[in-house]
Amino acid sequence: MKKYKIVLLSGDGIGPEISEVSKKVLKKLSKNHNFDIEIIEKLFGGIAYEKYGTPAPDETLDQCKKSDAVLLACVGDIKYDSLARELRPESGLLKLRSALNLFANIRPVKIRKSLLDSSTLKKEIVEHVDLIVVRELIGGIYFGKPRGHITNTQIPKAFNTMIYDSAEIERITEIAIKIAKQRNKKICSVDKSNVLEVSQLWRDTVLNIALKDKDISLSNMYVDNAAMQLVKDPGQFDVILTSNLFGDILSDLAAMLTGSIGMLPSASLNNNGPGVFEPVHGSAPDIAGKNMANPIAMLLSASMMLKIGLNEEKAAENLETAVDKVLSNGFRTADLADGSSKVLSCSEIGDKIINEI
Ligand code: IPM
Ligand code: MG
After folding, report:
1. pLDDT digits (tens, 9 = 90+) for 165-222
2. Burial class of residue 322, CB neighbours in 10 A (0-12, 13-18, 19+)
3. Atom 6, ligand 1: which residue's CA is nearest?
């Protein structure tokens, strides 16, 4: 029997609630599909700061490095916003991404048929949405140096550096090409090369590589226009390739096409070594502990983990089908509720999904 060791980081806010559902789902899948999954739980984020004074303790990072994959719920809470930057949960997340060298962040945005009416956009606009944001994850302005505050001036100043070298752009472009080849072979690279040098290098480098590949049709778009096009005609996109900051912004925007950010999974990958699979959404402290969170983005992240991280494709499909079945039966969590749906709690919708597995 295949045996996997995964690390579960349930983090903060709604994290523990959606993780409970994920654990049960993974156990059931492992039984049905004949594999053994050891789930090692570690502290990460605000909760780790509370206990150890750091959001990403070495012991957690070491376990992650030794695992087959990491499943992460979410981190953060406003109560940590006044901490020194390196102690905040978000910094822990950046440290984890960087420690595992997870340069490629894959965010699929797919409309599920039963949720066509849940988007804030008209059905005709969103019905053909099936795109993937490929976001560079450990470079750009998130990590660029120098960065900091200048305090010896009359008015306070602060600055960051948006920087890429061509090797970083090349490796994420290769990933986008690989993904595009399994789809419609269309890549739209998003930058701001009409203003930024770093984006000019981005555009030139992507062009250089993609042009060598006759299979790929490449277009370029400025990020402001891409934001507009994602709302105007999102069906035109297949693979969106972009940098860390632009990918962060555009993936939240794209998430809303599906009706709720509570539906969007992601995978953060390296060319070898364990990936981190996590929902795109945050920790939603306002609804934490109320058993009303939507666990589906985390379940779909678990499905990406099964498929990409553990090669358990059948189990991944089983989970996706179960989610679709429950949604098409009209069951929803509060974030997706419309007049006609049956609103369930986080654990209730989890149980419905488990019954369909
Ligand atoms: C995301 C999040 C993170 C990011 C935050 C929590 C640091 O918004 O994964 O999109 O900006 O990358
Ligand atoms: Mg984000």
Report:
1. 999 999 999 999 999 999 999 999 999 999 999 999 999 999 999 989 999 999 999 9
2. buried
3. 90
What CATH number is given for 1-111+261-357 in this structure?
Answer: 3.40.718.10
Ligand 1 pocket check: which of 93, 98, 136 to mutate, most ligand atoms within 8 Å of Cβ? 93
- 146 cis-preceded (ω within 30 degrees of 0): yes
Count of other CB atoms within 10 angstroms of residue 192: 20
Q: Whose CA is closest to atom 7 on ligand 1? A: 90
DSSP β-bridge partners for residue 36: 3
Q: Is 90 in the pocket of ligand 1 (CB under 6 A)?
A: yes
Residue of 130, 53, 72, 38 whose CA lies nearest to 305: 72
Q: By three-state DSSP, how is residue 69 classified?
A: strand
256 lines ligand 1 (CB under 6 A): no
336/326 Cα distance (integer angstroms): 13
Q: Which of 145, 136, 138, 59 is nearest to 100 (CA)?
A: 138
What is the model's pTM?
0.95
Architecture of the domain delimited by 120-258: 3-Layer(aba) Sandwich (3.40)
